Amino acid sequence: MRRLTALLLIVAVTAGSFSDTAKAETPLGKWARDAQQRVVKIYGAGGLKGLEAYQSGFMVSPEGHIATAWSYVLDVEPIVLLDDGRRYESKIVGFEPALELAILKIEVSDVPFFEIEEKLSASWGDPIIAVSNLFNIATGNEPASVMQGTVASVTDLNARRGTFKTPYRGKVLILDLIANNPGAAGGAVIDSRGQLVAMLGKELRDSATGAWLNYAVPANALRQTIGDIIAGRKTTIPDSSTPELARKDSHNPDALGMVMIPDVLEVTPAYIDNVSPDSAAARAALRPDDLILLVNGQRVDSQRTLRSLLRTVDRRDDVELTVQRDTQILPVTLQP
Amino acid sequence: MMNRIIPYLSGLAWLSMVIATIDTLQAADPITLDPILEQVENQRIESIARATPSAVSVFVPGGGGGGSGVVISPDGYALTNFHVTSPAGSFMRCGMSDGNVYDAVIVGIDPVGDLAMIRLLGRSDFPAAELGDSRIAEPGDWCMVIGNPFLLASNLQPTVTYGILSGVGRYQYPSGTLLEYGDCLQTDASINPGNSGGPIYDAQGRLLGIVGRASFEKRGRVNVGVGYAISINQAKNFLGYLHSGRIVDHATLGATVTTDPDSGVAVSNIIESSDAYRRGLRFGAEILEVDGRVVQTANDLQNVLATLPNGWRVKVTYRADGKTVNTLIRLMGVHLQDELLKKMAGALPPPPPRPQSPEKEGEKKEDGDPPADGDNKPPQRRPGAARPAKPAVKLPKQVQEQLVQRKGFANYFFNLAEQNDFIASLRNQFPFQELPPEASETESVAKKEKTAWLIKGVTDQNPAKPVRIQVAPDKMSLTIGDQQIQIENRGDMYDAVIDGTVVGLLPALDAWRRMLTEGPRKFGESYYLGTMPLGGERPLRDVMVGIAGELEVRWLSHPDSGAVEVVEVFADRDEDPAELWLIRDADSKSMPSMLDLRYGLDSLIRIRVKSWDQILASELNVNLNDPDENAADENAKEAPAVPAAEDSGEDSTGRDRTDEVKA
User: Fold this and answer.
1) How many distinct structural domains can be found in chain B?
2) CA-based diameter of chain A, in Å?
3) Among A159-168, B401-410, B653-662, which stretch is predicted with the lowest mean pLDDT?
4) Helix orientation angle between B441-449 and B653-662, rounded to the nearest 10 degrees
């Protein structure tokens, strides 16, 4: 009830201020404006039918760390446009497939950013605004779009496993506004205090009913990972200082029993085509169509990267893989 | 009232009521509303009650679809979308929340901006929306959309949806060159098919814009939280053009620009025949401001231009070679007129099927064309003209009475009405047309033909030179000091304007004199253009156009007083026109104190007017070389009124004149 009153106060002051002065910075307008300044537009891979080459993100550090949804848009190094129209090339400094979260970094300082809360403060009935660049409506220096609504419920998304195709298994905020549109993924959900409460997820459709879900991943679920990545404890950038070993001393996909799909592109995704019997891969129960995302915590963006990462691992050592199997994110240890 | 409003309360209020109820149940206290909650809801109820009566549910007769609209003046003028009126053609039925259905006739259309003006008929006291100011709207402002989604308003009660502005100054690409949404509003208030053309209001119930499109994608043609509205400020720019009954076009600068990170909006290409080029805009110049709005990116510039009508002359500030230049630029059209008509015909959705035989349709067409004004050719239907109404039902009488079809016009009836207003106003200001304008047409035309103007004054310089201007049919002269220029035909007038000489005064004055005596129908091809700024300044002036031979003349009149402020004579579209500025010390009924002839931005000559007499043309011959200025002045003072011309009894003069003009 107190939260509702808070929004209604905002409404009341908004309404009242019009009669006083034609042009007033209304609290709701300021609320929206503060949030818009922390939201960025992200451009990357895609552009084919049904695959938009853009999404949203928001600043999580004054040094230009940006939280966004992990998606195909990030298959290339993305371009980031700030609220004021400044344009940057970004680096993917970390990602967590199980959270569908990626952290980008641009070279700026002293930018406005969102603090990530430790505990989930939102509950059903809370008024919120969602700020994102849905449909890529805002271009250049135009501010992101603002939508308003309420948190309808806080619930588990995995209640009916397989209904929604996402690897995320934690709690979500279900929203009563149509927030999850093309390009909205990575947008910010803000409560009436101006506090970031959640990140808009990728578009999800109930495979049984065809209904589209409007949801967001609570900020507190992302906090640990965001903190780790910013602090450098969990970077997925390949460590270039690790020397490559001689071929005979290092791992390679074939020796581990992973037959990859033909490497015909500049960046062929690291999909497993077949698993050799009695191999390390077979013992770890890898399957055809598994996509290798990480090798020892480092990002695999192509088969070329996979091979060069394996070259840095002694063939007598275990290899920690993170693979995506359909909507599941699995940690796998290959023992030689 | 409450029973109708309650269903419209937002989920928020509803939710709070539920919570209040739950609290009550738990606490067993009587239900009390938080005073703030009550105040907010009461305000919202008031605003909805204020806004709803002006909302219109548009239905295409014969079941061809429909949309929404909003009444903006008590005499029934309403705005809607071009794409709502286009399937209907000229006639639609409009439901309002008072429970009545009104017939409506098309007035003017703007296919590029997706706007249309219609007029609801049958009342002179329609509830009209209060126009707001979309420039001060901001993301986060509460707003509401009232209209006819999914054509639900079969009980004539419109649907209210509530939300916030998600963005302002948005740009949504046109399809081809039509239906461009520049500088538009984006809202999360639900907008669905059928809301098109309807109003979006601010939280106080003031009209913010005209809802027109939404982002639909894979989820089907239903709201996904993203709707767009044409800003009311853009609509305000076009109101005068739409009132003209024309098919109107949007503006371009005649230049392309790029956003340069260092120098803002830089000109990358410019058409050499454009007014922008004549005003010094060149490759690399940085455009800073257009029509009073700062532009920092190419998108900003397109957003501003998209809201301006073709032909407007607006203030532009640009920087070139380190110098900042403030100038005025006449904007070009996005299309050539015929090009627009062609594109429009292509863009129109096919008309809904109508069970009707061709002969019957032909019959109806005749019925649908009321007798045009005497001077009009019978309405013609050509390919590319506004799609003629093919009503499944017979046009109501009052719609027929206000519908005249003509190429290039959505409804020429409204242009004729504006022309009549113009000539009435012209005849009611100095120099007065003393002869009864309507009474005995043939008789008075003959008299008026004889009227000539004799204007005397001095140049506004030191030392001042005496000036004598004579304007009469076939006899025009300009004497400045001891230099006299006489011109005899239209070719001379054309050359004077092209060469940018002081003689440009004469075609301007002659056109005025002739418009006054002959009226717009005999002047040549005349039409009311709409409204535009004068010298880049508001209020918007009424503009009447008269084309005679190769000269196109424009009268710009003040919207309140009707006083003509500038007469422009274009000899060539790609050259500066001669602009005759009339400076008055008093109201429109008094003689202008100063004539100022300008080309581009430069004043060529300023003349202090001492006297301005209407005399018989035959008297001019005698006075042609009269050097006695003082005597003439005194005469003028004694007899300031226009001398009554003698009745010559001729009745063929007018026609002769008209033919000559057209030659």
Assistant:
1) 3
2) 80
3) B653-662
4) 60
Q: Would the CB atoms of B142 and A125 count as touching at under 8 Å?
A: no
Q: Looking at chain A, list the stretches that DSSP marks H as alpha helix, in order from N- to C-terminal side.
A: 2-20, 27-36, 219-230, 253-256, 280-283, 303-310
- Summarised one tens digit per residue, pLDDT across range B582-593 is 999 988 888 999
Q: Which of B280, B310, B333 is the last residue of a domain?
A: B333
Q: Contacts of residue A56 in chain B, CB cutoff 8 Å?
A: none
Distances from the Cα of A105 to the Cα of A73, A227, A229, B184, B534, angstroms: 15, 13, 10, 33, 52
Looking up residue B267, the CATH number of its domain turns out to be: 2.30.42.10
Are B318 and B287 a contacting pair, CB within 8 Å? yes
Whole-number Å distance between alpha carbons of A182 and A203: 7
Is B449 buried (19+), middle (13-18) or exposed (0-12) by CB count in 10 A?
buried
Query: Is B599 within a domain?
Result: yes
The count of other CB atoms within 10 Å of the CB of residue B198 is: 32
A131: left (phi over 0), alpha (psi -120 to 50) or beta: beta
Distance from CA of B536 to the nearest CA of A (A): 24
Are B519 and B655 in the same domain? Answer: yes
- Shortest CA distance from B133: residue in chain A: A22
Closest alpha carbon to B190 in B220, B211, B217, B167: B211
Which residue in A60, A49, A59, A92 sits closest to A74, CA to CA? Answer: A92
Q: Give the chain A residue nearest B43 (alpha carbons).
A: A15
- A1-235 sits in which CATH class? mainly beta
Domain holding B636, by residue range, is 440-662
Q: Is B43 on the interface with A (CB under 8 A)?
A: yes
Residue B197 within any structural domain of the chain: no
Q: How much is the pLDDT for A328?
A: 85
Q: Which of A26, A145, A176 sits opposite B11 (nearest CB)?
A: A176
**Full-prediction pTM beyond 0.95?**
no
Q: Please, are residues B33 and B20 in contact by the beta-carbon 8 Å criterion?
A: yes
A22 and B133 within 8 Å at the Cβ level: the answer is yes
Examine the fold and report which residue of B318, B333, B348 is the final residue of a domain before the chain moves on: B333
Q: How far is B141 from chain A (nearest CA, A)?
A: 6
Topology annotation, domain A247-334: Pdz3 Domain (2.30.42)
DSSP B340-361: HHHHHHHHSPPPPP----HHHH
CA distance A15 to B48: 13
pLDDT digits (tens, 9 = 90+) for A281-297: 999 999 999 999 999 98
Asked if residue B276 is part of any domain, the answer here is yes
CB burial of residue A118 (10 Å; 0-12, 13-18, 19+): exposed
- Contact between chains at B299 and A142 (C-beta distance less than 8 A): yes
Q: Report how many Cβ contacts below 8 Å link chain A to chain B.
A: 138
**Chain A residues whose beta carbon lies within 8 Å of the beta carbon of residue B216:** none
Mean pLDDT calculated for residue range B112-125: 96
Q: CA of B306, closest CA in chain A: separation in Å?
A: 17
Convert the pLDDT of each residue in B216-272 to its tens digit.
777 778 899 999 999 999 999 999 999 999 999 999 999 999 988 777 899 999 999
Domain limits of chain A? 1-235, 247-334
CB atoms within 10 A of CB B297: 20
Q: How far is B21 from chain A (nearest CA, A)?
A: 12
Q: By percentage, how much of chain A surpasses pLDDT 90?
A: 68
Q: Do B637 and B516 belong together in one domain?
A: yes
Asked if B474 and B603 sit in the same domain, the reply is yes
Look at residue B283 and tell me if it is in a domain: yes
